[in-house]
Amino acid sequence: MTPKQKKRMRIVLLVLAGLSVTSLLALNAFRSNLMYFLTPAEIVAGGYPDEGMYRLGGMVVEGSVRRLENGITVEFDLTDYQQTVTVRYTGILPDLFREGQGIIAHGKIDGQLFSAEEVLAKHDESYMAPELAEAMKNVDMNKTSSTNSISEETL
Amino acid sequence: MNVLLKFYHRLGSPREFYKISSALIPWLGWTSLILILLASYLGLVVAPSDYQQGDSYRIIYVHVPSAWLSMFIYVVLAVSAAIGLIWRMKMAYVIMICSAAPGAWFTMVALITGSLWGKPMWGTWWEWDARLTSELLLMFLYIGIIALYNSFDERRVAEKSTAILAIVGVINVPIIHYSVEWWNTLHQGSTVMRADGPAMDVRMLWPLLIMAFGFNLYYGLTLMQRARNQVLVQEARSSWVQSLVTEREQQ
Amino acid sequence: MNFADFFAMGGYAWYVWPSWLLTAFILLWNVIAPQRKHRQLLQQLRTQTKREHLKRARQSNRSQSP
């Protein structure tokens, strides 16, 4: 490399390094603002005014889904295995909504309830055939009966 | 090493590049076609349906290779921009500018197929989570690169300014990749590029990897096609292009 | 194999098939368009070169004639 090329190389690397540091700092500063949803523990801990709209993400507790008398409103418990919040929602649920599934509810805090206007389902990163999933579930049940085997990561 | 260096220098000459790319195009075309067709058959017919998502997950075979390619192409684009700036290599700038359009197309495919997948599974066409937003930003970067390049009359100025924008934008690529780890998102985490290996049934994984490889060769194909056109335009006044077109006529 | 089942995609036909078709269409277009442009470019360069050859020939004729 000629000295001129070396100099240009140094400039390019310097610009890249400076850029990486600034964006890392900026992203870190806005980290909480860029968070797409809150967890039940965060919302229970407080500091979130009732008027605001929030996204609440967690696992639907097994056996907690119940339909109210009007037939279209559902209530279910959402957990991050630290805290649990009851969510109320009226409307169509996505295909993936089921007990034990990670979901995101968008809505308001309404006393002890979280009143959702939209419910989105989240799926995890594992893909397998139904037969295999069934087989694995049986193995899991034989091994442990704890429901805590799903870590927070899968939320 | 000597052979590689020679090849590099040959590629650096527009005339040699035109010859080599013209020879490569049919090979890239047929291999990518065969791989893509094979992966389509394996992905649509042979692979089992998913335990959670049923058959809707088959969108993965077009969505994920496009998304990977949208990032890979950007890296190629930024690296060629840096080579162009540092070594003043003509062909590096050609690779840079000819990668922008395929990159934009693949980003668009990733965004639209993702939307078509999100609607039935998540329950929404679009959400402003970190992954989706950073991929949209990539789309704007590609469009910005194409627009900036075309806004100058002087090609040398256009190449340099575009190269600077391209290098600055490369910071978005790791942000896209790690967005699902750094922030909580609606988008799932990485299935294939995981520290503990892919979290996918092998019958589902193979078609995905073959498709991704086929898409990569396809990018090579469309890049060579575009780059040799660009070479013809840039070298229109040179004697080799003039003898090339008159030779062709005599055949 | 049952074709009706295959096209139904477990009820997700309206999401799976448009995704695949759109991708196929865009991939095809990105090969056809540059190929067509290549042909046009060669054609254009050919006429341009011919015109210049003629011009040069005429100029040399004129300079020889007086």
Describe what you observe in this structure:
The complex is a heterotrimer of chains A (155), B (251) and C (66). With 155 residues, chain A is α+β, with helices and mostly antiparallel strands. Chain A has helices spanning 3-29, 31-34, 40-45, 130-143; strands at 53-60, 66-67, 73-79, 84-90, 102-110, 113-121. In chain A, strand 3 and strand 4 form a beta hairpin. The relative contact order of chain A is 0.13. With 251 residues, chain B is mainly α. Chain B has one domain: Four Helix Bundle (Hemerythrin (Met), subunit A) (Up-down Bundle). Chain B has helices at 2-12, 14-46, 60-87, 90-121, 130-150, 155-169, 172-182, 202-234, 239-250. The longest helix of chain B has 33 residues, at 14-46. Chain B is globular, with a radius of gyration of 20 Å. Chain B starts with a helix and ends with a helix. In chain C, 88% of the residues lie in helices and 0% in strands. Chain C is built from 2 helices and no strands. The mean pLDDT of chain C is 89. The A-B interface holds A 5, 8-9, 12, 15-16, 19-20, 23, 27, 31, 34-37, 39, 57, 92-97, 104, 118-134, 153, 155 and B 48-53, 57, 60, 82, 85-87, 120-124, 127-130, 167-168, 170-171, 175, 182-186, 188-191, 194, 199-201, 203-204.
Rg for CA atoms of chain A: 22 Å
CATH class of the largest domain in chain A: Mainly Beta
Give the overall average pLDDT of chain A.
Answer: 80
The count of domains of chain A is 2
What name does the CATH topology of the largest domain in chain A carry? OB fold (Dihydrolipoamide Acetyltransferase, E2P)
Order of helices and strands of chain B: HHHHHHHHH
List segments of chain B where confidence is low: pLDDT < 50 over at least 5 consecutive residues. Answer: none
Number of domains of chain B: 1
Q: Which chains make the largest contact?
A: A-B, 43 and 41 residues
Secondary structure class of chain A reads alpha+beta
Name given to the CATH homologous superfamily of the largest domain in chain A: Nucleic acid-binding proteins
Q: Rg of chain B, please?
A: 20 Å
Task: Provide the CATH architecture of the largest domain in chain A.
Answer: Beta Barrel
Instruction: Quote the beta fraction of chain A.
Output: 25-35%
Distance between the termini of chain B: 38 Å
